[in-house]
């Protein structure tokens, strides 16, 4: 089963599954990362729209996802937002011109994109030279015990939702040609991180 099929299948209960971690961790990270943005913003992997409430009116947001089921939930959350457009689109093949966006946002997405470096190269392409990638992601820990646990649960997570817990996302961002300007550990040592990068 493809990653898209998995997300279409679980889209109706996805928010319920993630509710505890959203309440205790994700929600405040989203608020801190997104609440001061302005200009043209692309959110890659908008999912069920968990970030939408955190974008200010000064941000003109385009959210893309390749799961119609997840987008349906995002449309429900969007309500009457005038500064938002939601599109069905593949992160690895984006239909935007070069140098379009001031910000590209990913939140817990790069673990499930089939080819994360290819998708990141697309993100770099559509960013303006002065633009910025902001990524809230989980990734393989440098702590051996935590990494062992990630290796242990990786097959199950991939089977259930196409989520790979063992990716070196920081290195993937560098491979795509970005320059890291901030790397901040958020939780569980260095599993959850905020990364800001320039194209």
From TrEMBL:
Which GO BP terms sit in this record?
methylation
Stated EC number for the protein is 2.1.1.17
Q: Determine if Iron-sulfur is one of this entry's keywords.
A: no
What Gene3D superfamilies does the entry give? Vaccinia Virus protein VP39
Any GO molecular function: phosphatidylethanolamine N-methyltransferase activity
One Pfam family cited in the UniProt record for this chain: Methyltransf_11
Domain Methyltransferase type per the UniProt entry, residue ranges = 42-134
Q: Which UniProt keywords apply?
A: Methyltransferase, Transferase
Identify this protein by name: Phosphatidylethanolamine N-methyltransferase
Q: Which organism is it from?
A: Methanosarcina horonobensis HB-1 = JCM 15518
Q: What is the lineage of its organism?
A: Archaea, Methanobacteriati, Methanobacteriota, Stenosarchaea group, Methanomicrobia
């Amino acid at each position: 089963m493809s990653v898209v099929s998995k997300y279409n299948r679980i889209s109706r209960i996805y928010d319920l599954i993630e509710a505890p971690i959203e309440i205790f961790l994700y929600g405040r990270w989203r608020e801190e990362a997104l609440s001061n943005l302005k200009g043209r913003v692309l959110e890659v992997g908008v999912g069920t729209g968990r970030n939408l409430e955190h974008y200010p009116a000064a941000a003109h947001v385009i959210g893309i996802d390749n799961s119609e089921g997840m987008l349906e939930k995002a449309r429900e959350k969007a309500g009457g937002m005038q500064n938002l457009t939601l599109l069905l689109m593949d992160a690895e093949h984006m239909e935007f011109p070069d140098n379009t966006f001031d910000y590209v946002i990913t939140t817990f997405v790069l673990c499930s994109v089939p080819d994360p470096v290819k998708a990141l190269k697309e993100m770099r392409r559509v960013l303006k030279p002065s633009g910025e990638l902001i990524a809230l992601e989980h990734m393989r820990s440098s702590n051996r015990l935590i990494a062992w646990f990630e290796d242990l649960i990786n097959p199950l997570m991939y089977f259930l939702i196409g989520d790979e817990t063992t990716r070196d996302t920081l290195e993937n961002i560098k491979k795509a040609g970005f320059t890291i300007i901030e790397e901040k550990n958020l939780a569980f040592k260095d599993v959850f991180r905020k990364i800001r990068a320039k194209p």
